[in-house]
Fold this protein.
Amino acid sequence: MKDHPARRLLLVHAHPDDESINNGATMARYAAEGAHVTLVTCTLGEEGEVIPPDLAHLAADRDGTLGAHRAGELAAAMKALGVTDHRFLGGAGRYRDSGMMGTEQNHRPGAFWDADVDEAAGLLAEVIRSVRPQVLVTYDPDGGYGHPDHIQAHRVAMRAAELAGDTAYGAVPGEAHTVAKIYWNRVPRTVAEAAFARLRETAPDAFGGVAEVGDVPGVVDDGRITTEIDGTAHAGAKTVAMRAHATQIAVDGPFFALSNDLGQPVFTTEYYELVRGPSGGGPGAREHDLFAGLPDVAAAPGART
Ligand SMILES: [Zn+2]
């Protein structure tokens, strides 16, 4: 990675669209600042429900071509965010969307939920050793909301960070690399509550209904939030990226809905919980940069000054 920027950020997600919803503003901001942003998506999202009626034929129970279509949506979203390094774990189609918890899709051939964690983590460890990111972003142990692919993405990401840094691990090529900081995607409860109040007040009829705070993945008490990334300047790019996932997301101004047609807020400040590595926030203060507290990249090209 000699020619790559000094600051390198890796995000691990379950399906195309998760990255834009959770981290779109963060990804756009760091890409614009010259950091190297790598997205690894673990499945093609083959089991997603399709919103536009004219594309309903793509669904798994009809043509079964949604995965390839969603890869195209993801490419368009990455273009909107300015991210050029996006990959599927083990290559497109290596792991299949496992569907919602408790469905027969959980155990279809290739289902990510059934993947051997060490094997999948090895594929990701190879990416880590190659890209050598200082920062990794993924989900919490519940995957944010209990979807099997999100839970598995968490397990694989955390295990991959371990394997990549283990000098004795030789199953994949590359020199050992320790990821300095690991974050889980979060939303502070008070921010979610305020955003839903605004939605109910200003756009109650934008969609078929309004979702609940509990429907938002990763909501926790504010005290657990260590880091907030103000992506307001990149709100437009995030919205364009979300719209690119047209089979999965309907956007209306600062709100959006998934296939359940329940309105949710688009967050343009994105929140994180630092679970490994040094905090650059100072005592009791939130960080405003995922690379904060890493002295060797603080003054590097592409770093914020
Ligand atoms: Zn997902």
User: Anything to note?
Assistant: DSSP finds seven helices and twelve strands in the chain.
